[in-house]
Amino acid sequence: MTAxxxxxxxKRFPVGAAWGVRGVFPPRGQQRGQLAVDHIDLAVxxxxxxxxxxxxxxxKTTTIRMLLGxxxxxxxxxxxxxxxxxxxxxxxxxxxxxxxxxxxxYPFLSGAANLARYxxxxxxxxxxxxxxxxxxxxxxxGLLSAAGKRYRHYSLGMKQRLAIAAGLLRPRELIILDExxxxxxxxxTREVRALIRQIAADGTxxxxxxxxLAEVEQICTHVGVMRTGKxxxxxxxxxxxxxxxxxxxxxxxxxxxxxxxxxxxxxxQAQATDGEASAALGDAEPERVCAELVHAGVGVRGFAxxxxxxxxxxxxxxxxxxxxxx
Length: 326
Prior knowledge:
- It is a single chain.
- It contains ten helices and 15 strands.
- By secondary structure, the protein is α/β, with parallel strands linked by helices.
- Helices cover about 30% and strands about 25% of the residues.
- The longest helix is centred in the middle third of the chain and has 16 residues, at about 185-200.
């Protein structure tokens, strides 16, 4: 039931001439090279929109390149739609569309002409139905009216949509998108986001690498979070939210007294600041907490229960910030 599955997938890049120069070698027992992806176990459910997240340099693109057979793993295994890759890639890649590291087209050709050349490179495609496939792909991404326009005159958002159209020239069960909204303005981002929703609604599994939290919250059903080559979280969005502790915050003139009450209720991480006390809610009921504070004579000016934001959770997992803009 998985569209993508990996086990111990690892990629170590050789440092090459860097070692051995002027007699410099790695310490005894240390492997040479840079560890870009470190034993990750992906499990992407079919029909999911899986957000593959992490700061720049966390190993996202390297992982995608290994999944598509563009780079060979140092160790571990990977499978797309149940077929091992890269060994049996030819049996499955015609069912997989992709956009990796930005679009690449001939600037002097039209959008339709560029797609026609992509289609001609597919040895399994019927050349007699090429035009209908190109038109259908352009229609799906909203570019049919710009089919005759030269690529160099496309906006950045149009270029990204044309690249996605190239991945949709044939019916796909899985589409892999590497930073599809990178560099787009808010309008272009919304266009690509709507397109991803449409592709998913048609029954295609979408695996999208991103660093934009807005995309995750609005379109993804599952997420995997990378940090320095390691997969530090994987699961549904509700599962991710449950990893953060819900906290109670009390506004009061006597925060020290409030902390004593919160601690007495078995609430962890209680702390007092100027005019405020807070603690992890745990299994306590907010109504009881508020009642106990009042019963203990603590004047309550404000009472709030809040869960950490997605941004807080990601920063906690990766130790780095994420771009939260559109």
